[in-house]
Design goal:
This protein is an alpha+beta fold and 304 residues long. The chain has 4 helices and 10 strands. The strands form 3 sheets. A 4-stranded antiparallel sheet has the order 2-1-3-8, with no helix packed on it. Strands 7-4-9-10 form a 4-stranded antiparallel sheet, with no helix packed on it. The protein has a two-stranded antiparallel ribbon with strand order 5-6.
Length: 304
């Protein structure tokens, strides 16, 4: 049986309304999805931007720390060498933070590392300050030691100079001295009697007498007295052309004869004989006496 025309129209209107409603729902859902998706995209974009900004901020913090550290090292090259171990730790932390910032790792780790690095850097600065103060203290101490050493050195030089002067004075004071030097020319008659003469060609012996003065500073014991007898021409007399030499500190000299006396720090008189070799010529003879390589007396006598 056929439906009435009015019923068909109502049915079509109902279907159209249902379709329109469905389409409206779909459109609303689509719009809601698009809005939600846009919001999500904006949030993700915002997060990405925030992430990038945080990374850049962390990189800036890290660069500032590294720049400050390098500046400190440049200003304190000698001191930073003494902090090599801390410097190595700072470099290791810096490299680790850079690797974290390059990756997609949690930025909180980088923040923690930078905070730790900042603490290490502060300790580094404190250590530099301590070293600087210590070095200044050591420098002051070193300067004081140098001044003390210079003072001691000057004192030592003064002492050496004083000791040298004292030594020279003692050495000078310890030199024995001769006084009352007398020389006689002797010859002997056929009877053996000893006769004094002033004629040079008759002299057979020289009788040489002298007094060694008292000296409490000089060393006791045997003393060698060297005698140089110079003829009127200045030649050193010897026997049978036998040349005898005495080595001094700066030269060598000839001597005529030597005598040994036992000196006990008291004045003593002594006489010695010297027998000539060749016949002597007239003129002035010089007698020089040396003890311990020092000239201690001179005597001159003229014979006809």
């Amino acid at each position: 049986m056929n439906q009435p025309i009015n019923s068909k129209g109502i049915l079509i209107d109902k279907r159209i309304k249902t379709l329109v409603l469905s389409l409206s729902v779909v459109i609303v859902l689509l719009l809601a999805f698009l809005v939600w998706n846009k919001v999500q995209s904006e949030e993700q974009l915002a997060l990405m931007i925030e992430n990038v900004e945080q990374k850049n901020a962390l990189r800036d913090d890290l660069d500032d720390l590294i720049d400050e550290h390098e500046m400190l090292k440049d200003e304190n090259l000698e001191l930073s060498d003494q902090l090599y171990s801390k410097d190595s730790v700072i470099n290791a932390y810096s490299n680790e933070i850079k690797n974290l910032l390059r990756s997609e790792a949690d930025l909180n780790k980088a923040r923690v590392k930078i905070k730790r690095l900042r603490e290490i850097s502060k300790r580094y600065v404190n250590a530099l300050d301590s070293l600087f103060i210590l070095n200044e203290s050591l420098q002051l101490e070193n300067d004081s030691v140098k001044k003390a050493n210079r003072f001691i050195s000057n004192k030592n030089r003064d002492l050496v100079r004083t000791n040298k002067n004292l030594s020279q004075k003692v050495s000078t004071a310890s030199v024995l001295k001769l006084e009352d030097i007398s020389v006689e020319g002797l010859y002997y008659r056929a009877s053996g009697r000893e006769v004094t003469t002033s004629r040079a060609n008759k002299i057979q012996n020289f009788k040489i007498c002298y007094t060694i003065l008292e000296n409490q500073i000089a060393d006791k014991g045997e003393k060698q007295i060297y005698v140089r007898i110079l003829d009127p021409k200045g030649s050193v007399l010897n026997v049978s052309n036998m040349v005898q030499e005495l080595e001094l500190s700066d030269t060598t000299i000839q001597y005529t004869t030597k005598y040994i006396v036992d000196y006990q720090n008291i004045a003593m008189n002594d006489c010695q004989l010297w027998t000539r070799g060749n016949v002597l010529s007239s003129g002035t003879f010089t007698f020089e006496f040396l003890i311990d390589e020092t000239l201690v007396g001179i005597h001159q006598l003229k014979f006809r």
